[in-house]
Design a protein that fits this description.
Blueprint: E1 3-6, E2 11-14, E3 21-23, E4 45-53, E5 62-67, E6 70-71, E7 73-78, E8 81-87, E9 93-96, E10 104-112, E11 131-132, E12 136-141, E13 145-146, E14 157-163, E15 166-172, E16 175-176, E17 182-186, E18 192-196, E19 201-204, E20 210-211, E21 215-216, E22 219-226, E23 230-238, E24 243-246, E25 250-253, E26 256-257, E27 260-265, H1 278-291, E28 295-298, H2 305-314, E29 317-321, H3 333-347, E30 353-360, H4 369-385, E31 390-395, E32 412-415, H5 427-438, E33 444-448, H6 469-484, E34 491-494, E35 500-507, E36 510-514, H7 528-537, E37 543-545, E38 552-553, E39 557-564, E40 568-573, E41 576-582, E42 586-592, E43 596-603, E44 606-614
Parallel strand pairs: 27-28, 27-34, 28-29, 29-30, 30-31, 31-32, 32-33, 38-44
Antiparallel strand pairs: 1-12, 2-3, 2-4, 4-10, 5-9, 5-12, 6-11, 7-8, 7-10, 13-16, 14-15, 15-19, 17-18, 17-22, 20-21, 22-23, 24-25, 25-26, 35-36, 37-39, 39-42, 40-41, 40-43, 43-44
Helix pairs in contact: 1-2, 3-4, 6-7
Length: 635
């Protein structure tokens, strides 16, 4: 049987000109300087070194190293010999070290996130953390074993099809040795429901469909090589589903309308940067589930395999993409293809993924015939490698709907920030309507929309650019209305679920951050806008008193706002019932303030509360400090 040995501990890390430091993986060297602003974080070549004894393996077995994420270029040397160079910081790569092992071994991985014109991304609104920031595994494969498939993809590639009440799979695999592979299909209860071999259709009768967040049912496909005993075993999880996009009615899952309403996600945290563990991934997926989303755009690169697994388990429909972003680089044409190949091949089996994102805001800079040609070729490549999924693109806000780049992929979406960078939120809807009018057969969606908010900034009269929690909430209330009036939108994704690091930024009094998240960078504070979406998306009963952090208020009267998915809300002030209102999602009350006001809002057994204090002058801590910029990172 194959062995998978976690290889994360006892590395020696060295930056140029500095002393070596002992550490364990995952790790990035930009966990601090990539989040503090100034656009001056260290982009350089650093070295990770690990010494180890030759592992115990038999003649004919193979020993390999699996790197799940090295940003952005990695050179792997064993005992002084260069074994591989991998360009692209977000995908897995595997290197065979069998023939280079000694009794005592020195493994060196040179990791480089320096600026280059040959590897994407180089120009974008997020930090390009350098490091070995995902797990490393030592693999020992038996003499008879399943090989990894092209681009270090899983050993089993499973094509699924729904045929009436049945499911059909066809498994591609490559075997080293002379044993015939056995393929088993197991249901959620670990019962074998079908059996066969590779390269043949295997039928699962009365198949249970993977049905999004309501019922994300998964099967397990096992590949077994057996002589007298089992010599190798691999497995992957799959789901059976059908989907399509209708330009008038939006997204359909398993033949039924399934409006995709959700969020985008970046993969970083305070201090640790992108060096996440399972704990952080699990916390993120639970928060996205809580807000009630049913789709995630995993921006702007390939995410950890564990997070795709979680999306399968939780039933989120996923937009997956490569970091082909902002600026076309001719010298990186091949790299874009390589990263797309890895994205598709390594993630082929995930039922959550329905589309491949070609690029993001690629018209931000000059667009040439070479840009368009490359997009067409990349789009064709996606269809060739995976005919089962559609392609999409995230269009730059100022790009007109007539730009040819927007019409290469099967569907398109726009990144629109009307109401934040420019006035009038509802223009977003008019732009979508224009597309729908001129291109009635071309599905359109919203790949990004959002506004900045700091939970410590507040205003009685919120306005665009003030970074207050109140303005972000009002913006999203308007956007929810814009979206709900347009069922033709095939998908909408809030930018962003979480605040994230962008070292070039200086906004909201906290440099180095993008604050458009519904949840703060540390995941400890859900902003009011989080609850606005929860009111519209989630079936979990709740009630939320808005602006609880806006304690000190001027004036004789103040607005009390409540988000809930219940139909009736009662408001109490200092123990006295002020009013009970019936309504839908958003409830507003105007109260006359006492010096101190204990506010309690209820709906049935649900309750939330807060304190409001009447003050004579504005609290200066609620106002964004001067010296920052509310403009986009490239404006």
């Amino acid at each position: 049987m194959r062995q998978v040995i976690l290889f994360n501990n006892d590395w020696l890390f060295q930056m140029p000109g500095e002393e070596p430091v002992k550490l364990n993986l995952p790790h990035t060297w930009n966990g601090v300087d990539g989040q503090d602003g100034g656009d001056n974080y260290k982009r350089c070549k650093c070295t990770y070194t690990k010494t180890f004894k030759q592992p115990d393996f038999k003649v004919g077995e193979r020993v390999k190293l699996e790197f799940k994420g090295v940003n952005s270029e990695g050179e792997v040397l064993l005992n002084g010999k260069l074994l591989t160079v991998h360009a692209g910081g977000y995908s897995t790569f595997i290197v065979d070290i069998t023939d280079h092992l000694l009794d005592d071994n020195t493994l060196v991985v040179n990791v480089d996130n320096s600026k280059t014109e040959e590897v994407y991304p180089q120009t974008a609104d997020f930090t390009f953390y350098g490091g070995i920031y995902r797990d490393v595994n030592l693999l020992i494969l038996p003499k008879n074993h399943f090989e990894f498939l092209k681009d270090s993809s899983p050993a089993l590639k499973v094509t699924t099809k729904v045929d009436g009440n049945d499911g059909i799979i066809n498994v591609t695999a490559e075997v080293s040795g002379n044993l015939a592979p056995i393929i088993l299909v197991l249901n959620k209860d670990n019962e074998v429901v079908a059996k066969g071999t590779i390269n043949e259709d295997i039928k699962i009768s009365n198949v249970h469909l993977w049905n999004g967040v309501k019922d994300p049912y998964l099967y397990t496909v096992k590949g077994i090589l057996k002589d007298k005993d089992i010599e190798d075993e691999v497995s992957t999880r799959i789901g059976f589903r059908t989907f399509k996009v209708d330009p008038k009615k939006g997204f359909f899952l398993n033949g039924k309308p399934y409006p995709l309403r959700g969020v985008c996600r970046h993969q970083d945290r305070p201090k640790i940067g992108n060096a996440l563990t399972k704990k952080e991934h699990e916390e993120d997926i639970k928060l996205i589930k809580e807000v009630g989303a049913n789709t995630i755009r995993l921006a702007h690169y390939q995410h950890d395999q564990y997070f795709y697994d979680l999306c399968d388990e939780y039933g989120f429909v996923v937009w997956a993409e490569i970091p082909y972003i902002s600026r076309y680089m001719k010298a990186a044409d091949k790299n874009a293809f390589n990263q797309m190949a890895e994205l598709i091949h390594q993630n082929f089996n995930h039922p959550s993924i329905v589309c491949w994102g070609i690029s993001n805001e690629i018209t931000m800079f000059k667009v040439t015939n070479a840009t368009r040609k490359h997009h067409k070729e990349l789009n064709e490549f996606c269809h060739k490698e995976d005919p089962s999924r559609f392609t999409t693109i995230a269009c730059f806000s100022v790009m007109t709907i007539f730009n040819r780049i927007a019409h290469i992929t099967d569907v398109a979406s726009y990144n629109l920030y009307w109401g934040w960078y420019v006035p009038i939120t509802r223009v977003t809807g008019l732009i979508c309507d224009m597309w729908h009018l001129f291109y009635p057969h071309g599905p359109i969606g919203l790949s990004e929309y959002g506004a900045e908010a700091m939970p410590n900034l507040h205003s009685v009269h919120p306005r665009r650019g003030d970074n207050t929690e109140e303005y972000q909430a009002i913006y999203h209330e308007k956007m929810i209305d814009v979206i709900n009036k347009r069922p033709y939108l095939w998908a909408t994704h809030v930018w962003n679920m979480f605040d994230f690091a962008a070292d070039a930024r200086n906004q909201g009094g906290e440099p180095g951050m993008n604050h458009k998240g519904l949840v703060t960078f540390d995941r400890k504070t859900k902003k009011d806008s989080f609850y606005a979406y929860k009111a519209y998306w989630s079936e979990e009963p709740f009630i939320h008193l808005c602006s609880k952090r806006f304690v000190n208020r001027t004036g004789s009267k103040t607005l009390v706002k409540v988000y809930t998915n219940q139909k009736e809300v009662s408001l109490y002030q200092n123990g006295k019932l002020i009013a009970t209102k019936s309504g839908d999602k958003i409830f507003k009350f105007k109260i006359k303030m006492d010096p101190t006001n204990e506010i309690v809002v209820t709906s049935g057994n649900l309750k939330d509360s807060g304190i409001i204090k009447k003050v004579a002058t504005k609290d200066p801590s609620y106002i964004v400090k001067k010296g920052g910029s509310n403009k986009s990172w490239e404006k």
